[in-house]
């Protein structure tokens, strides 16, 4: 069924009895050309682009839970392309262009809102760094505007500009950045992949990866064995565990990243705003809740829950930046499991096992990367060649130290995470 205004009208006047499920619920077949392990945003996007761009439809996406139940449904929904380092700059620029045409591509409303992202700075040094990053964004072909204090005050009047410890000097404005509805992104990619013939198999946990003579031959699952010519691993915070089934030890640590949401309020925040002195970021959802988050909890864990010290830190930063938030009631918080790479940049690459591919290490940036990641991973699996936008996302950079994209300033090791 193609979604349209006519469908909404027709279904509305006939009691909404004609809607059909957005995707099938097939049983797994015994064999596929390609198996994607992980039915999150990246896995679903990979399946969509495999079918759309490369005509590969004998594909299964295996999800141990339900579609949209992982990080793609647990994040602060921010979309941006404001990176400065080569490697990440061209990739996220590519991903943002895909976001801008995504709703037409999927025939699905993912509520992509280009409301703008503003990174505040609070010192001369931070202003210089913001100016350099903005120039690199423009050189990449993206947009960036350096705002002074009065420029920020004009569009963000609710901030505390007179705080004595960390005064606001200005901000780097990225107008094409914004937000999208996270679960709608999962559902849109799922529906599109299903329409092209991809099998989306839920409640199907992979328990082993079959390898013969150095080549992958299939997977073992809780719903039986499945043969496959190629297998892609894209399971975010569980990457190390799944890759270990193929004898790999990844340069990945899994950490908790918390997010919070308040009660629904009247419109107050038109943009996405980040606080340069507290790793705090905030926007307002379509339902009115203020959605915000901070930094990692800073201990490795697979538990999808956070600790109180980081919650306290985030709330302190919120009150410092915009004291008005103290009048809102916080409704809930949640924790997502981040697959943290040492240099803060992802991996999209082949592995030492022929036919086995890896997509992981998205750190804090997984949601905004969904379309770009799916497109580049599909290209790699289909052609065995890296997509030009992801050519630097090599796995071996952590062994050699060559080609690091050191967003974290920590080098090739985890010792500073």
TrEMBL record:
Location relative to the cell: Cytoplasm
Keywords: Cytoplasm, FAD, Flavoprotein, FMN, Nucleotide-binding, Oxidoreductase
Gene Ontology BP annotations: tetrahydrofolate metabolic process
One function term, GO molecular function aspect: nucleotide binding
Listed EC numbers: 1.5.3.24
Listed cofactors: FMN; FAD
One Gene Ontology cellular component annotation held by this UniProt entry: cytoplasm
Alphabetical list of InterPro entries matching this protein: FAD-dep_OxRdtase, FAD/NAD-bd_sf, Rhodanese-like_dom, SoxB
Keyword presence, Nucleotide-binding: yes
SUPFAM superfamilies: FAD-linked reductases, C-terminal domain (SSF54373), FAD/NAD(P)-binding domain (SSF51905)
Statement: the UniProt record of this protein carries the keyword Lipid biosynthesis: no
PROSITE patterns named among the record's database cross-references: RHODANESE_3
Segments forming domain Rhodanese: 34-78
Catalytic activity: sarcosine + (6S)-5,6,7,8-tetrahydrofolate + O2 = (6R)-5,10-methylene-5,6,7,8-tetrahydrofolate + glycine + H2O2; sarcosine + O2 + H2O = formaldehyde + glycine + H2O2
Family: Belongs to the SoxB family.
Official protein name in the record: Sarcosine oxidase subunit beta
Naturally occurring in which organism (per UniProt): Roseicyclus marinus
